[in-house]
Amino acid sequence: MKPEIAPPGGAPHARILGVGAHRPRRVVDNDEVCRFIDSTDAWIRQRTGIVTRRWAAPDETLETMGAEAAGKALAAAGIDPPRIDCVIAATFTHLLQTPAAAALIAHRIGATRAAAFDVSAGCAGFVHGVALAADTVRGRGGHVLVVGVERMTDVLDLHDRSTAFIFGDGAGAVVLGPSDTPGIGPVVWGADGSQADVITQTEPWTALRDTPGRAFPSLRQEGQRVFRWAISQMPGVALAALRAAGLPAEDLDVFIPHQANVRIIDSLTSRIGLPPQTVVAKDIVHTGNTSGASIPLAMEAVLGSGRAGSGDTALLLGYGAGLSYAGVVVTLP
């Protein structure tokens, strides 16, 4: 008789124990962005709701911003870095092919024994990371750090009128750990690769190698196609995540969607059927669209404002390049 492999020993449930954020020092208003593109403050506010965004300084790297947010999340959770078993970084602006940004962040914060890897799912990456982290806690126990971090300005063409005014930089992080009661519901996720061209990089990195002097690859998106896809497809994902968690829409305390556009957020809120008392995060107004960092930044902001509190139920809904998406209901720390 062959010996059996011992099963993993995990926790009955997982929950978020703490959240932290890092917002770059430099605040950039719409008038400053309009120095690069033919637009106005009024037009940008009307189309996106964005008033300001943060752009990182040279010393605010992906690694340092991620570590700052991680340190605050660890402090909020009361967990020392050596107790972290795994670090997951959700990012697509880590322009070094290897090693992973998560490994650099783990080293900087002193999580010396943690596994570390990156998740690249664009603006949906953070929710993917939370889902993987929850499964890890339930599967093997321990604590997992999830960091959403982006330097969008590294991949922007500041003269591209379709993207220059939308994006900002920043980092947000959460610590997940064991729980006796459910704190994270089942994830509803997926991708539609047939629309991969809607949000994409202009050229592969190999173009720079093969054709010296070529322009640096940058982010491109078809805003109207993103808008139509988000408002038509994401309400169903949100409702599926609520059903999977066994939570009616009217019982949801907080809605924290990807901070893509205030018009999209308002449309989703209406189409999902959320009641007026549901708190809806709109951190994009002063932070811009920070892709994989937008949901943890918005979570930290809504908790810090006092509009939401510990124990509230929140729907996290990420969507973006891929086109990919992920929704999950969590209990706020």
UniProtKB/TrEMBL annotation:
The residue ranges of the Beta-ketoacyl-[acyl-carrier-protein] synthase III C-terminal domain are 242-331
One GO biological process term is: fatty acid biosynthetic process
- A single cellular component GO annotation: cytoplasm
Q: Where is this region: ACP-binding?
A: 259-263
The record's InterPro entries line, in alphabetical order, gives: ACP_syn_III_C, ACP_syn_III_N, FabH, Thiolase-like
Q: Does the keyword ATP-binding apply?
A: no
Q: Which pathway does it serve?
A: Lipid metabolism; fatty acid biosynthesis
Molecular functions per Gene Ontology: 3-oxoacyl-[acyl-carrier-protein] synthase activity; beta-ketoacyl-acyl-carrier-protein synthase III activity
Q: Which domain of life is it from?
A: Bacteria
- Give residue ranges for domain Beta-ketoacyl-[acyl-carrier-protein] synthase III N-terminal: 117-193
- Keyword Lipid metabolism listed? The answer is yes
Q: Which reaction does it catalyse?
A: malonyl-[ACP] + acetyl-CoA + H(+) = 3-oxobutanoyl-[ACP] + CO2 + CoA
Matching entries from SUPFAM superfamilies are given as:
Thiolase-like (SSF53901)
In terms of Pfam families, this protein maps to: ACP_syn_III, ACP_syn_III_C
Q: Name the UniProt key words of this record, in alphabetical order.
A: Acyltransferase, Cytoplasm, Fatty acid biosynthesis, Fatty acid metabolism, Lipid biosynthesis, Lipid metabolism, Multifunctional enzyme, Transferase
- Kindly list the places in or outside the cell where this protein is found, as annotated in its UniProt entry: Cytoplasm
Q: Please classify the protein's predominant subcellular localization into one broad category.
A: cytoplasm
Entry's EC annotation: 2.3.1.180
Q: How does it assemble?
A: Homodimer.
Q: Which HAMAP family match?
A: FabH (MF_01815)
Q: What does this protein do?
A: Catalyzes the condensation reaction of fatty acid synthesis by the addition to an acyl acceptor of two carbons from malonyl-ACP. Catalyzes the first condensation reaction which initiates fatty acid synthesis and may therefore play a role in governing the total rate of fatty acid production. Possesses both acetoacetyl-ACP synthase and acetyl transacylase activities. Its substrate specificity determines the biosynthesis of branched-chain and/or straight-chain of fatty acids.
Return the PANTHER family for the record. 3-OXOACYL-[ACYL-CARRIER-PROTEIN] SYNTHASE 3, BETA-KETOACYL-[ACYL-CARRIER-PROTEIN] SYNTHASE III
The entry's free-text remark on domains says: The last Arg residue of the ACP-binding site is essential for the weak association between ACP/AcpP and FabH.
What family is this protein classified in?
Belongs to the thiolase-like superfamily. FabH family.
Name recorded for this polypeptide: Beta-ketoacyl-[acyl-carrier-protein] synthase III
Native source species: Streptomyces caatingaensis
